[in-house]
Automatic annotation (TrEMBL):
Residues 22-32 have a biased composition (Low complexity). This is DNA-3-methyladenine glycosylase 2 family protein. Residues 1-38 are annotated as: Disordered. GO terms for cellular component: cytoplasm; protein-DNA complex.
Length: 332
């Protein structure tokens, strides 16, 4: 039966955190797994909802497959787990493996955006209204896991995305562990103690400077306390995270957007976002954080959603000048 379905090629992540998901097709269910079926009462686009969890096309903890599935390898409070999620016929079919399987399945609706409330958003600009209509399956995910979003967000501080994705890929593959279940080449990120024991030369080899590695080391020492932030209101969660030196507004926002599904956690301090928001809403280039926040003020409480819709609209300023050339501290 599987041969009757022609898979579409998987697209890489685009601005706004959308991952192209091929059309679903039946696949044989591997043994030794737990399953759950859940039907959301609204349209669901897995690529839009789960796309922000992917850290580049080579992310060893995230994969999409031609059968229409999204695979995630996670370190849950119960232990490592692998989750496969497929949307088919209006229903979400999930399968999980490992010690964290039950934990992942219990939180499947939250992962797919059940805790989100798009009805709280009112578009006050034509661009956002049009994009919202074109993306009815957009929901904000809530993973309930802090460290899996915090660490790659720290790696993305002040470097290009390609540099950060490379560092995450190398460190997880080298120091993580193979994900439970049948997914080849998926890895669970290292546990906190393992992160703490990574030698300085391995950080250097991955292109991570001492400032970012130091922030990660400080965070993993109090990983349990930081994971508690996933159960807090987003404002409290941000305050908890920013107690760690090296974690500021940019990193905390990028984290709670995913771990807490925070609709108002707009990212400040980003190299590109203010210019994109300013251009989309005014047609002018060169906006800074202050102007971006002023433009997003009508969406207070939903500023992150507004920014995601702007990114998904594709209405971004044309590039001028050469791309930034990344450095390579590993070659020093």
């Amino acid at each position: 039966m599987a041969g009757r379905y022609a898979p579409r090629p998987t697209r890489t992540t685009v601005r706004g955190g959308h991952v192209g998901i091929p059309a679903a097709r039946p696949a044989p269910a591997p043994a030794a797994s737990r399953t759950r079926s859940w039907t959301p009462p609204w349209p669901l686009d897995l690529g839009l909802v789960l796309g922000p969890l992917r850290r580049g096309p080579g992310d060893p903890t995230f994969r999409t497959t031609p059968d229409g599935s999204v695979w995630r390898a996670c370190r849950t409070p119960e232990g490592p787990g692998t989750l496969r999620v497929t949307a088919r016929g209006g229903a979400v079919e999930a399968e999980a493996w490992g010690a964290g399987a039950d934990w992942l399945l219990d939180r499947l609706p939250s992962l797919c955006g059940a805790d989100d409330d798009p009805g709280a958003f009112t578009a006050r600009h034509r661009l956002l209204a049009v994009t919202e209509r074109r993306r009815p399956g957009l929901r904000l995910t809530r993973t309930g896991l802090v460290m899996e979003s915090l660490i790659p967000s720290v790696l993305e501080q002040k470097v290009t995305t390609d540099e950060a994705y490379r560092a995450w890929r190398l460190l997880v593959r080298r120091f993580g562990e193979p994900a439970p279940g049948p997914a080849d080449r998926l890895h669970v990120m290292p546990e906190p103690r393992t992160w703490a024991l990574i030698p300085s030369w391995e950080w250097h080899r991955a292109g991570v400077d001492s400032k970012r590695s130091g922030t990660i080391l400080r965070a993993v020492r109090v990983a349990n306390r930081l994971e508690e932030a996933a159960t807090m209101e987003p404002e409290q969660a941000v305050r908890r995270l920013e107690l760690i030196p090296g974690i500021g507004p940019w990193t905390s926002a990028e984290t709670v957007q995913r771990s807490n599904g925070a609709p108002d956690a707009v990212t400040t301090g980003d190299y590109h976002l203010p210019n994109i928001v300013g251009y989309a809403l005014t047609g002018r280039r060169g906006a800074d954080d202050d102007e971006m926040l002023e433009l997003l003020e009508p969406y207070a409480g939903q500023r992150h959603r507004a920014a995601r819709l702007i990114l998904l609209s594709g209405n971004t300023p044309p590039r001028r000048g050469p791309r930034f050339t990344p450095g390579n501290i590993a070659a020093l």
